Automatic annotation (TrEMBL):
It is an enzyme of class 2 (transferase). SMART domains: B_lectin, S_TKc. The keyword Chloroplast does not apply. It is a single-pass type I membrane protein. Keywords: ATP-binding, Disulfide bond, EGF-like domain, Glycoprotein, Kinase, Membrane, Nucleotide-binding, Receptor, Serine/threonine-protein kinase, Signal, Transferase, Transmembrane, Transmembrane helix. This is Receptor-like serine/threonine-protein kinase. It is found in: Membrane. GO terms for cellular component: membrane. It holds the Pfam family PAN_2. ATP binds at residue 502. Its main location: membrane. It comes from Eucalyptus globulus. Residues 475-740 form the Protein kinase domain.
């Protein structure tokens, strides 16, 4: 939401403010507390204040317009931290650190990083600045925008602003506006890759050069500027009065960008000068999966597709789930337990696995009913696009004559265990997605539980260490336990607990923001098959990550070191399922989608009991340039999905590919090199000739399980990412809860198997 709030600066505002300290320099040793007379520091004119403001039941720290109700907050420190109580203190310590100390004595850097400043200022521009020696700028709030840009503030290439939860809760919300490195200004939902299918607003200025920035002038002129000072594009015309006005640009919690103006001559009127769209249903992700957006009286609202109910009533973004348990679907009489319901003028992301042309609507309905894989279809002008659940970014679009068709189950009492028996008995090759959907629901429930747990573990967020502390922890980096392309790992001890400390190579020490974001993202993951990040350090050019210690080394060493020590088949399959669970968690995890980008046995670590994924998110950390062109992709040859080489967008399906390659290695205990040499053809030949035992050598294995695992691996390495199963499906197939269709690559040679 872009606001331009144009304020007349009233002298009265100063007297309304509770702060005592004014003037440009905030002295070392000063402090603030929420309920005292000094709860904030004012800018020289008294317009802006930095300090405590009420949030929820407590207080947050940020920058806001002083004394002008309703309080307009333009920046929030550590926005996702819970509010502090009235007993908290904000300290600008004698050694120049800006610390928020909770009433329990817990300390947190307001700047997120450890800094030692000489002085600080709340400027009249709304920028809060920490100065180093000789007045150099050490840190400024303008560099770390939350959801708002103020005049003279810029959004540089690679930066983004993220909406708040609501007008009164400034925690990270659902939408983001990214100034991409390719010069394009794009809006996406949070937790999505920077690729076209997710965007819902673009300035259409891609390929206009590196480091194009978004700028806001005091007159409300919003424009894109390249590094030679050339205006690439005007977004708004500007020309608003510059006296007695403040202009604020913001991405709103509803996903719209707006520029507001507030003229204090007509006190209290906040007016929208410009808005990125008039259609509140435009922002993708407003309604969660299987929901769709409708407009009631110019207000957006979410509804569920027929046969679906809200997962969490009142929380649109959580999406909808089936209100029935799907029946087993058998090819042939698939229609028996389903009907098709239509929703007219509906559109959702077209992610079809098959398109029929020259059909009519009834033909489309029939085709979906007869196809076990079909759970929904989009019908438009003779084209029938068959799709699987979940459906994303659904909305009503009156101007578009598209019909959405949803397959809805006829409600019958379902006995799941019976169903499963039936499937096995009849040996159906194609499992109707019904059981799968049942699994999805179960998984969704467990994910919700995981998600809830996550909230509780928030206080276990990764800790900030000083370099000296980590030197102590690792005994001056004495014992090296691993070395990769990006860092060296050392053993350490914290208290009684062993830890692994990874020191990133200095050459990678740029990208402060990305490092922080990643630390935050990784730090919030919590899953038994994902290595836990305990802490981090960023001091000077040092970048270190502290992980839990994994006693049995990497999967690569476990699999390949010696034939005697390798785990047996059952254990190997358990490891494969463990990894699948971990990857699934990263992909579908509640807060942030993480594409690992480098799944391989070297990055899977083992403790006594289970396999855990490590190094996740580092690819994104080291390659923040996700602009759709994908230059300089990391990833390990042989594991990298083919679309990366074609410069196509990277999606979660790239991880599925790497997982497939790794699954072959787990099955055969071959190194990837050998998998390459043997070629898929050889595997396929053995597979189709019933000679699959050759794959595992002498080892006694359950042949059905082996066959299943190979089929899963073959699905995973499909050339076409859309053909690759989701990680959910991979897991269900590996667990034996879902039948595995004949893999596409293999279908020509083994369709009779
Ligand atoms: C706060 O201000 C009030 C009135 O201005 C004054 O009476 C009181 O002593 C002040 N309290 C502190 C702790 O400075
Ligand atoms: C803000 O919203 C988040 C997410 O819904 C919630 O966890 C948090 O408690 C809210 N904060 C306040 C102060 O209400
Ligand atoms: C900025 O844009 C102008 C006009 O398109 C162009 O001539 C100039 O080379 C661009 N500068 C950079 C650094 O791309
Ligand atoms: C873009 O900005 C980055 C960081 O400020 C700088 O290192 C890089 O050289 C810039 N690129 C161009 C083309 O100006
Ligand atoms: C942008 O707007 C300014 C005036 O606000 C005008 O001078 C300039 O020519 C415009 N540039 C483009 C590329 O439209
Ligand atoms: C599921 O929802 C549909 C409407 O979408 C409704 O007709 C049906 O009765 C619901 N079934 C159950 C079991 O709630
Ligand atoms: C139907 O599909 C064909 C082929 O994909 C495409 O060329 C055509 O434009 C589509 N028709 C409509 C109405 O979308
Ligand atoms: C479900 O199936 C199992 C095994 O066939 C049977 O023992 C059980 O009684 C069935 N339950 C119901 C509710 O039909």
């Amino acid at each position: 939401m872009a606001f331009i709030i144009c304020f007349l600066f009233l002298s009265a505002s100063a007297s309304l403010a509770t702060a005592q300290e004014t003037g440009s320099n905030i002295r070392l040793g000063s402090s603030l507390s929420p309920t005292s007379n000094s709860s904030s520091w004012l800018s020289p004119s008294g317009l802006y204040a930095f300090g405590f403001y009420p949030q929820g039941q407590g207080y947050a720290v940020g920058v806001f317009l002083a004394g002008i109700p309703p309080r307009t907050v333009v920046w929030t420190a550590n926005r996702d931290d819970p509010p502090v109580s009235a007993g908290a203190t904000l300290l600008f310590t004698n050694d120049g650190r800006l610390i928020l100390r909770s009433s329990q004595g817990q300390e947190n850097y307001v700047t997120a990083v450890a800094l030692s400043a000489h002085s600080a200022s709340m400027l009249d521009s709304g920028n809060f600045v920490l100065y180093g020696p000789k007045g150099s700028v050490l840190w400024e709030s303008f560099d770390y925008p939350t959801d708002t840009l103020l005049p003279t503030q810029r959004l540089l290439g690679g930066q983004q602003i993220i909406s708040s939860i609501s007008a009164t809760n400034h925690s990270t919300g659902l939408f983001r506006l990214k100034m991409q490195h390719d010069g394009n200004l794009v809006q996406y939902p949070v937790n999505t890759p920077d690729t076209a299918p997710y965007s819902y607003f673009t300035s259409w200025t891609d390929k206009t050069g590196d480091n194009v920035s978004l700028n806001l002038d005091v007159d409300g002129h919003l424009f894109l500027l390249n590094t030679t000072g050339y205006v690439i594009k005007n977004i708004t015309t500007g020309g608003l009065p510059t006296k007695r006005m403040i202009c604020i640009f913001r991405i709103g919690s509803d996903g719209l960008m707006r520029l507001y103006s507030y003229d204090l001559n007509q006190k209290g009127t906040l007016s929208v000068v410009w808005s990125s769209t008039n259609d509140e249903c435009d922002p993708k992700g407003l309604c969660g999966l299987n929901g769709f957006c409708v407009k009631n009286d110019q207000q957006a609202a979410c509804q569920c597709l027929p046969g679906f109910d809200f997962v969490e009533p009142g929380n649109w973004a959580a999406g909808c789930e089936r209100n029935f348990t799907a029946e087993t679907c058998k090819t042939g009489d698939a229609g028996a337990s389903y009907v098709i319901q239509g929703v007219d003028n509906t559109l959702w992301e077209d992610d079809s696995y098959s398109v029929l042309s020259s059909t009519d609507k009834d033909g489309c309905k029939q085709a979906c009913l007869e196809d076990c894989n079909c759970e929904a279809a989009l019908y438009k002008g003779g084209n029938c696009s068959k799709q699987r659940l979940p459906l994303r970014y659904g909305r009503i679009l009156i101007t578009d004559a598209t019909s959405g068709l949803i397959k809805v189950g006829i409600v019958k009492p379902v006995n799941a265990s019976q169903n499963k028996k039936e499937i096995t008995r009849m040996g159906i090759l194609f499992l109707g997605l019904s059981l799968l959907a049942f699994g999805f629901v179960m998984m969704a429930i467990s994910l919700v539980i995981i998600c809830k747990n996550n909230v509780w573990t928030k206080d276990q967020a990764p800790r900030l260490f000083t370099y000296a502390e980590l030197e102590l922890v690792t005994d001056s980096f004495k014992e090296q336990i691993g070395r990769g392309a990006f860092g060296t790992v050392y053993k350490g001890v914290i208290g009684q607990k062993m830890v692994a400390v990874k020191r990133l190579h200095k050459s990678l020490a740029e990208g402060e923001r990305e490092f922080q974001t990643e630390v935050e993202v990784i730090g919030r993951t919590h899953h038994r098959n994902v290595v836990r990040l305990l802490g981090y350090c960023m001091e000077g050019t040092n970048r270190l990550l502290v992980y839990e210690y994994m006693s049995n080394g990497s999967l690569a060493s476990v699999l390949f070191k010696s034939p005697e020590s390798r785990p047996f088949w059952k254990k190997r399959m358990e490891i494969a399922r463990d990894i699948a669970r971990g990857v699934l968690y990263l992909h579908e995890e509640c807060e942030t989608q993480i594409i690992h980008c480098d799944i391989k046995p070297q990055n899977i670590l083992m403790d006594e009991n289970r396999a855990k994924i490590s190094d996740f998110g580092l690819a994104k950390l080291l390659n923040a340039d996700q602009t759709g062109t994908f230059t300089g992709i990391r990833g390990t040859d042989g594991y990298v999905a083919p679309e990366w080489h074609r410069g196509q967008p990277v999606t979660v399906k790239a991880d599925v590919y790497s997982f497939g390659i790794m699954l072959f290695e787990i099955i055969c205990c071959w190194r990837r090199m050998e998998v390459d040499l043997l070629q898929r053809e050889a595997i396929l030949e053995w597979f189709s000739n019933g000679e699959i035992r050759k794959l595992t050598g002498d080892e006694k294995v359950d042949e059905d399980e082996l066959k299943a695992a190979i089929k899963v691996a073959l699905w995973c390495i499909s050339d076409d990412p859309t053909l690759r199963p989701s990680m959910k499906r991979v897991l269900l197939m590996l667990e034996g809860s879902a039948e595995i269709p004949v893999p596409p690559i293999a279908s020509s040679s083994i369709c009779t198997v």
